[in-house]
Each structure stands twice: as structure tokens, then as C-alpha cells.
Amino acid sequence: MIDYTGLHCPVCGKPFARDDDIVVCPECGAPYHRACYASEGKCVFSDKHGTNTAWAPPKQEAQKEPVNRAECKTKRCPRCGNMNSQNAMFCDRCGQSLTINQQDTPGFQQNPSNPQNGFPPYGAPFQQGPVPFLFDPMGGVNPNEQIDDVSAGDISRLVQSNTPYYLPVFMNLKRFGKNRFNFSAFLFSGGWMLYRKQYKTGSIVTAVMTVLYLISTYVSIHFATPLLQAMFQKEGLSLDSSNVTYAQMMQVLAQLSQQPDQQVFLFCLPTIIAVIQFIIMLIVGFNGNKWYLKHCVSKVKQIRQEAPDATHAAIQYQEQGGVNTALAICLLICYLIVMYLPQIL
């Protein structure tokens, strides 16, 4: 069947739209708007019927436009098997980087006779050597499912790393309101948020935790520890003593109760700060997944609005998504310096 869209009506000269009411000449196949054919009452090429000059679709219009090689889906994802455009930098479905060599990917088995080229269809088991295993980079979530007007597939393109964990968590949050405690967010708090490129909130949490730690360290070194040492010395003890009796500890506490209120506060301040830090860690652990979902949805919507085409959108997903490993390493080094510097000094 010929697609007449874009061809011109021989009577009015206007191009046919997809929804136009079109009739064709039963002799030569020339297309007309129904009203145009009715006004003429016959085919305008009737005198040429049966000859080599009868109507035929113009070659330059009848032929389809050349295929854009950049839009050909020839690049297969080494994680989920999804086909992507030739210039894609990462998978449209699971966010896996497509710049790596597929031959070096675990589970890849080249098979020229297999149209899947060694990859099973989405959701099917991969092969790693002789041992099969199941792997779904979407964590069982349909890429087309919507989360706050954003598809799970687009969110996976932003998350990229550890999508089998985050996508089911995000879906449960939106479907059932059920959250999951994030132990990485609990243990590393602001560092985890910076690692996940939540720079604004992560910077605030990291700054607060750092300031609390520095205050606690300063007070411990200059006030709490010297005061405790002085009280132990009055009892003939040292801080390194391992045979302190209950009675001696009560004597130390009695001395503490006789100290001015300011001294008692400074002595207890490191413990108070430790409790505050633990509460902050709990808050981040319980709310980390919610905050990360909000961050991902916001970023996806921003990329949709700002990216002029799919290529630029792919670049933005790659740059703004995933994790910041370099920053995580720098934070770890800074943490070790802050931890051990007081001991060196």
C-alpha cells in the first residue's frame, strides 16, 4: 500500500496530510482529495492511461528519507541487552555505560549465528562462564512505569550505579509509601549524599557534621580530658588505669558534681555532640532514599526542559547522574586527616 502523505494532489496542488480523505484513480492510481476528484469528475491523466507516461509516484517524494545512522539502534547494552542508538553513551533502559568494550563485559558470549549477539532478552538470565545467574538491572521494575510523571527508565539513566536497589525502593515509596532504611546513608551521611551528587543538601550535612566533630575534639582536648585527668590524679589514679574500682569512680563523679556548671557542661559537651551526630545519621538513614528520589525526579525534569534533543539529554544524564567517586575518595582522605591530626599534634 502506497503512503500518499506528502505527495501533491494533481488538482489543487496541496500536499496530502496523513488524515486527508484520499481517493485514487482505478486506472493509474493517481491520488486526489475526494472533493478535488469530485470537482473534476475524472482523472486528469485519463488521456495517458495505458501508456508509459501514465501517472506514477515521483521518485524523490515516494522514496523514504535516508535513514539517520545516528538513530539506528545498533548498539546493544552489555547489562540488559537493550538496543540503543549508534551514538548512545549509555543504555536508555538501565543507564549502563556503552563506551566499554562489550567483549570485556562479564556475561558476554559472542555468537555470530545468534541475532541477540550473545545477549539474552531483557530480564532473561545472563551467562558468566558455565554458571548461569539472574540479573535484572531495573530490579524488576518496568522501565515505562511512572514515578511522579517521570519514567523509571529515565530515573535509571540518572541513577546508573546500583539501579537494582534504588528503583524497587523508589517504586515502593510511590506505590505503598514503604521506605527502606539506607545503611550507606546512615554510616556516611553527608558523604553519601555528595557521592550521589546531591551537592546542596550533602554539603550542608557534611558541614554540620564536620563542625560538630571539630567542636567535640577541641573541647575534649582542652577541657574535658584535662579535667578528667585532674580528678583521677586526686584519687591517685591515671586515665590509663585498668583496675579502677566502683568506689573510686563514684569519688571521681563526686568531684565532678562539685565543679562549676560551666566546667560540667564542657565535660559533658562531647557526649552531647556524639548524641546529636547519631541523631543526624539516623535522620539521613531513614530519609536518604526519599531525598534521593526527589533529587532524581527533579534532575530528570530539568534535563527534559533544557536538553534540545536526545543527544544533549544523554550527555546531561551522563554528567549529572551516576556517582562522584573522585569526590568520595577526597572526602575519605580529609576524614582520615581530621581524625588523626589531633593525635599527631
**Gyration radius, in Å:** 35 Å
Number of strands: 8
The shape is rod-shaped
Which spans have pLDDT < 50 for at least 5 consecutive residues?
60-67, 100-134
> Whole-Å distance between the termini?
85 Å
Q: For the residues shown, what is the average pLDDT?
A: 80
Count of DSSP-assigned helices: 11
Strand order of the largest sheet: 1-2
* Main sheet summary: 2 strands, antiparallel
Instruction: Kindly name the structural category.
Output: mainly alpha
The sequence of SSEs as H and E is EEHHEEEEEEHHHHHHHHH
Which percent range fits the helix content?
40-55%
> Strand share of the residues?
5-15%
Descriptive overview:
Residues 77-98 form the Zinc-ribbon domain. With 345 residues, the protein is mainly alpha-helical. Among the domains are: 1-65, Herpes Virus-1; 186-344. Helices cover 49% and strands 7% of the residues. It contains eleven helices and eight strands. It is rod-shaped and about 125 Å long. Residues 60-67 and 100-134 have low confidence and may be disordered.
